[in-house]
Design brief:
Elements (H helix, E strand, L loop, with lengths): L1 H16 L19 H14 L3 E6 L4 H13 L2 E7 L2 H11 L6 E5 L5 H15 L6 E4 L20 H21 L6 E5 L9 H4 L11 H4 L16 H27 L2 E5 L15 H15 L5 H13 L8 E5 L8 H6 L17 E3 L9 H15 L14 H24 L14 H18 L3 H13 L4 H4 L31 H16 L18 H9 L2
Parallel strand pairs: 1-2, 1-4, 2-3, 4-5, 5-6, 6-7
Antiparallel strand pairs: 7-8
Helix pairs in contact: 3-11, 5-6, 6-9, 6-13, 9-13, 14-15, 15-18
C-alpha cells in the first residue's frame, strides 16, 4: 500500500513538473465499463466477425484503382474491408474472379449521386460495425466526363462529377469521423490528382485549369442550373479537376480542424497517371488507345493500375503514412534521357507519378497555392456544409483533467459571466447599421438578479470586506497605469446611430409580463442557490416564491 502511494505521488510530481502537457497522459483514462448482457452479446459478435482486424471502408472498388487496392488490403490479412459500390452484382463477380476472402470482405450499396444513399450507407455501416470503430476511410470513387457538352445532374440536383467525387464524400466524412476517433490509428485518405495541383505540368500546363475562383457557384447553392463551383459555364474536364482540388483542400482543412481533437490522420494522394484505368471509359476510342503510349514513352508519368493500387494500400497501411495534413506522391517524374530506358522496360521507368521506385520512394509532395489557400478552404467547408446539410461534430481539443483546474473553473464561471454582462451593458457593441446591440430578456434578467443579489446583498456585506482587504493588500493603481491615452473617451451617444423608442433597450425587464417574471425568478434562483448551473425546470417547480408586491417594489426601487 505504501509503495503504491509513493508511486502515485511520484507520478503526480512528474506530471506537475512537465508543464502544460502534464496531465495529457490521463486524457484516455476511463472508468471501468460495466457491460449489460446485450452489450456483452454485441461485443462477442463483433469479436467473432472482425477478430483483431482493422475495419476499412473504400468507395468505388469494383474496378480500376479501388479494385487493386482491395486486393492488397484483403491479402495483407490485417483488414476487414467494406466495399461501398453502386453495383453490388458487379462487385460480387469481381470478388469471385479475384478470389477475395469473403470472410474479410463485405459489400454495401452506395450511390454517390444521392445524399440519401450516403446517409443510408452510414446507417447500415453503423449496424454492421457492432460497436467496432472504423479504422480507415478511403475516398476513392470518382467519375471523369470530359466529353460532355452539358452537365448531368444528380438525384439532389447537383452536377454529377462534383457530387460523386467531392460532395458525397464530404458528407460521408461528417457522418463517420466521430466514430473513427475511437480507433487507435484512424486515417481518412482522399484520392487527389496532379490535375488539381497547378504547380505541376499536368495541373498547370493543360487547359482547363482547376480553379474555384471565389466559389460563387457554391455560394449560390450549386443547384441546377449552376453546374460549376466557380459559377461559370460547364466544362466536363474542369469539373473533374475542380473536384480533385476540393478534395485536396478539404484534406488540409479537416487536418487543421479535427486532427488534434479526434486524432485522425487526413491525407491526400496522387498515385500516378493510371492511363489504362476505366476512369477514361467516357473518352473517345483513339484517346484510350494512344494516351497510355504517350504517358509511357513521352512523359514517363504512366503507372499501371496494379502498382497504383499498391500505392494507395501503402498510405492506408504503412506506419510512415500516419502523418496528417500531407499530400503523398512517389519518387521521380518526367525527365530528360528517358526514351531508351522506357523502351527497354515497356514504359515502366521510375518517375514522380511514374512507375517504379518501390515502397520506399514515397515522399510528401508540395501543394499549390490554390490547395493551400486557407481562406478559400474555410469558405469551401462552409458552403459544402450548407449544400450537403452536413452535421459536423464539435472539434474540442484536449482539456487537462487536473482537479485544481476544474475547481478554479467552477468557482470562476459565475464571476466571469457577471463581469461579461456588465461589460456588455456599458458598451454592448454595434450592429452593421451602427445601432447598439440589444440585450436579450434573459441577459436583462441576469443583470437585475446580479444587481439585487450580488451587488446589493453580497456587495454590501462580503463584498465590502473584500474591497477593503483588496485595497490594503494590493495598494492603489499607479497613475502611470491610468494615464497615457491620446484621446478622451467619447460618450456612447456621439458614435451610435439614433435608436427609436421601439427598439431602445433597458437593462430592466417589464415585470408586468408573466413570462418575464418567470425569467427573472429563474435567474435570481440560479444566483442564490444553483452556483450558476441552469435548471431546465420551470419556476413553478421552485421551492421558494417571492410575493408579487414585494418583487415589484424591489424592482421599482432600483
Amino acid at each position: 500500500m505504501v509503495n503504491r502511494t509513493s508511486k502515485t505521488l511520484l507520478l503526480a510530481l512528474a506530471a506537475v513538473s512537465s508543464g502544460a502537457n502534464a496531465f495529457k497522459f490521463m486524457s484516455n483514462w476511463q472508468a471501468p465499463k460495466i457491460l449489460s448482457e446485450d452489450q456483452k452479446v454485441k461485443a462477442a459478435a463483433a469479436e467473432e466477425r472482425f477478430g483483431d482486424k482493422k475495419l476499412c471502408v473504400i468507395t468505388g472498388c469494383s474496378s480500376g484503382l479501388g479494385r487493386e487496392t482491395v486486393k492488397n488490403l484483403v491479402a495483407s490479412g490485417d483488414y476487414h474491408v467494406i466495399g461501398a459500390v453502386r453495383d453490388q452484382d458487379k462487385m460480387e463477380a469481381v470478388a469471385e474472379i479475384d478470389g477475395f476472402d469473403m470472410d474479410n470482405f463485405h459489400i454495401m450499396d452506395l450511390e454517390l449521386n444521392s445524399f440519401a444513399s450516403v446517409h443510408a450507407f452510414c446507417d447500415e455501416l453503423k449496424e454492421y460495425q457492432l460497436g467496432k470503430p472504423l479504422d480507415r476511410l478511403i475516398c476513392n470513387a470518382g467519375v471523369y466526363q470530359p466529353s460532355l457538352p452539358h452537365a448531368k445532374w444528380s438525384v439532389d440536383g447537383h452536377e454529377q462529377t462534383m457530387q460523386i467525387n467531392f460532395l458525397s464524400h464530404f458528407l460521408m466524412i461528417s457522418r463517420l469521423i466521430d466514430d473513427m476517433k475511437e480507433a487507435p490509428d484512424p486515417r481518412v485518405i482522399m484520392v487527389g490528382s496532379v490535375t488539381g495541383n497547378d504547380n505541376t505540368v499536368g495541373g498547370g500546363g493543360v487547359y482547363p485549369i482547376a480553379d474555384l475562383k471565389q466559389l460563387d457557384g457554391f455560394k449560390a447553392g450549386f443547384e441546377n442550373p449552376v453546374a460549376m463551383a466557380d459559377g461559370y459555364g460547364f466544362i466536363g474536364a474542369k469539373a473533374y479537376k475542380d473536384s480533385k482540388l476540393c478534395l485536396m483542400m478539404m484534406s488540409n482543412f479537416l487536418h487543421s480542424k479535427f486532427n488534434k481533437s479526434h486524432g485522425i490522420t487526413f491525407s491526400s494522394i496522387y498515385p500516378g497517371c493510371i492511363a489504362e484505368t476505366p476512369l477514361f471509359r467516357e473518352k473517345r476510342a483513339w484517346f484510350r488507345k494512344y494516351f497510355p503510349i504517350f504517358m509511357k514513352y513521352i512523359t514517363g508519368g504512366f503507372v499501371g493500375v496494379e502498382e497504383a493500387g499498391q500505392r494507395l494500400f501503402q498510405v492506408a497501411h504503412d506506419p510512415r503514412c500516419s502523418k496528417s495534413g500531407v499530400y503523398w506522391s512517389w519518387n521521380g517524374g518526367p525527365r530528360e534521357g528517358r526514351g531508351a530506358a522506357a523502351l527497354e522496360k515497356g514504359g515502366q521507368i521510375s518517375g514522380g507519378g511514374g512507375a517504379g521506385g518501390g515502397w520506399d520512394s514515397i515522399y510528401v509532395n508540395d501543394q499549390s497555392d490554390k490547395v493551400n489557400n486557407l481562406e478559400l478552404c474555410v469558405e469551401l467547408f462552409q458552403t459544402a456544409t450548407k449544400i450537403t446539410d452536413a452535421q459536423w461534430p464539435s472539434a474540442k481539443t484536449f482539456t487537462s483533467p487536473c482537479p485544481t483546474l476544474k475547481v478554479i473553473s467552477a468557482v470562476s464561471t459565475n464571476m466571469i459571466a457577471r463581469e461579461e454582462l456588465k461589460r456588455m451593458d456599458d458598451r454592448p457593441g454595434f450592429n452593421e447599421d451602427g445601432s447598439v446591440v440589444q440585450l436579450t430578456k434573459r441577459k436583462k434578467a441576469a443583470l437585475v438578479a446580479d444587481k439585487v443579489i450580488v451587488q446589493g446583498v453580497l456587495g454590501n456585506t462580503v463584498g465590502r470586506v473584500g474591497r477593503v482587504a483588496g485595497r490594503l493588500l494590493l495598494g492603489r493603481i499607479p497613475d502611470t497605469a491610468k494615464n497615457g491615452s491620446f484621446q478622451e473617451e467619447k460618450p456612447l451617444d456621439d458614435v451610435v446611430a439614433p435608436i427609436s423608442d421601439e427598439t431602445a433597450g433597458s437593462k430592466y425587464i417589464d415585470v408586468i409580463d408573466e413570462g418575464d417574471k418567470s425569467i427573472l425568478e429563474d435567474e435570481i434562483f440560479d444566483q442564490v442557490f444553483s452556483n450558476g448551473n441552469k435548471d431546465d425546470g420551470s419556476s413553478e417547480e421552485r421551492e421558494w416564491k417571492i410575493g408579487e408586491q414585494e418583487k415589484e417594489k424591489e424592482l421599482a426601487s432600483m
